[in-house]
Write a structure and sequence with these properties.
Order of helices and strands: HHHHHHH
Shape: rod-shaped
Structural class: mainly alpha
Strand content: under 5%
Number of strands: 0
Radius of gyration: 25 Å
Largest sheet: none
Amino acid sequence: MIGMLIGFIILLLIVGIVIAFVVMYNNLVKARNFVENAWAQIDVQLKRRSDLIPNLVETVKGYAGHEKQLLENVTAARSAVMKATTPHEKAEASNMLSSTLKSLFAVAENYPALKANENFRDLQNQLTETENKIAYTRQFYNDTVTKYNNTIQTIPTNIVAKLGGFTKKELFEATDAEKSVPKVSFS
């Protein structure tokens, strides 16, 4: 009788452990999928921005044709974003593209006719809106990655994560150039 009771308790314990393992594993899969979805949202916005750039470059060419090097830099940065495959590569290429776009918009300030062009203003507004969406999706991605990384590194899910092959994900970080304080001069 006592042997059957002990056997039943051991069986319940084993079943409980298996159920806990399955629940933790499924939660880890969901967390990993949320990270992948968050990255896909960044990818969507990067693609949207890349699709807008050729139109912007063509519009600027008509007004500022002698800014050839800057236009080539924007085109090269766009190409780098499209060729990047890993989140880290895409982050670096995206940051480079953001920087070249800022330069392009700064140059546009020197061309009043260009600034007044309705097509340019519309493209600039769409790019600004897209940049805002990229910033938001980066933040959402980083929040999702942080939650995922916390989950795979804390007890007891870290054991299931290790057994299931779940690995730490990288955050989308700003470059050193983006972190630096811009110089403001009123001279």
